[in-house]
Amino acid sequence: MVWEQKKDELEGRVTELEETVSDREFQVACLQDQLKSLETFKAETLSNIVKESKDEALLKLQNEIIDLERRLHSRTMDVEMARIDADTQMRWKEEQLQEGVSRQLKLMATEKELRETVSEKDGELRELRQLLDRARSDGGKKEREVTRLTTELGEANKTSSELEKKLEEAVVSHARHLQEMTAQKDTRIAELSKALEELQSEILGSETVAAPERNPLDFATVSTQTDPPPPPPSPSPQEEAKVGEGAAVLQVSNIPDTSLTVTNGLGGSETEEREEEGELTMESHGLIEEVRIYTHTYTLIH
Questions:
Q1: HSE, side-chain direction, 13 A CA sphere, residue 173
Q2: CA 180/CA 178 separation, integer angstroms
Q3: What is the pTM of this model?
């Protein structure tokens, strides 16, 4: 009985234990489910964390890469600019060096030329010193010569002053004489013109003459010169015909140291009969002068 009771107790306890175990197993299963859920959540969470970390790391890495590329580009540009500056400075230094070498060569050539010039000038200087010594040795003679020439120059200046004074007096006297002669010539020309008019009136008094209204005397030229005047040209056949047709010509010419000749030639009728020429002369002195007086050509109306 005791055994059975114990057995029943044990079975009861076993049953309780089994129930407890079953409960524990259910709890374990629940816990396992919860664990699985937690593991899944953990995995998802870890995955999300890793993914976010990877994205952030990738973005950060990309930013770093971009920054590095920017810095690399900047550094490359700095290096390129430094290289260009170095090349420029190198070329400038080479040009400066070439210019310096060229200047040095020119200076050397100039120095050589200057040395040659100095050598030549030294030779010329020696010659000039020799000439100076000779000139000093002849100094006494030259001084005496200068004194003599100075004395002669003073006498010549004195003589020149006297000659200038005499020349001025002669010029004044000659000018006064020319004025007097000019006045006499003007008076004589007026007298001759009046005589010519009277002579024409006497010759043409019995005939009707068609004459121009202007003054019958034209004073063509009055010239004063220092050289003898050229001889008058010979009259052309046409001019000779005009004289024969009734022209009157009065010519007054004056040549120095000769006589003043007044010649008049008058044409008569159509047969060209001329009267004898008359001459009036008077002495004239001074500069060469020439005065010509021409009259108009008159046509005879029969």
A1: 6
A2: 5
A3: 0.25
* Lowest-confidence region among 152-156, 240-244, 275-279: 240-244
Q: Which two three-digit tokens encode residue 248?
A: 């009157």
Non-local (6+) Cβ contacts of 221 within 8 A are 290, 291, 292
Residue pair 286/178 in contact by the 8 Å Cβ criterion: yes
* Lookup result for tokens 């030639």: 265
Q: Tell me which amino acid residue 173 is.
A: S
* CA–CA separation, 102 and 293 (whole Å): 87
Q: Are 285 and 256 in contact (CB under 8 A)?
A: yes
Name the residue ranges covered by the structural domains of the chain.
82-135, 176-301
CA pair distance 39, 31, nearest whole angstrom? 12
The length of the chain is 302
Longest dimension (CA), the chain: 230
Which helix (H) or strand (E) covers residue 127, if one does?
A: helix 2-137
Residues 195-254 pLDDT 10s: 888 888 888 774 544 444 444 333 333 333 334 444 444 444 333 333 333 333 334 443
Give the pLDDT of residue 2.
61
Q: What's the pLDDT at 65?
A: 82
Residues 6+ away with beta carbon under 8 Å from 217: 193, 196, 293, 294, 295
Of the ranges 100-104, 135-139, 252-256, 284-288, the best mean pLDDT one: 100-104
Cα 263 from Cα 159, distance rounded (Å): 48
- The DSSP result for 186-249, as a single string, is HHHHHHHHHHHHHHHHHHSTTSEEE--SS-SEEEEEEEEESSPPPPPPPPPHHHHHHHHTT-EE
- Percentage of the chain lying above the pLDDT 70 cut: 64
Rg of the chain in Å (alpha carbons)? 73
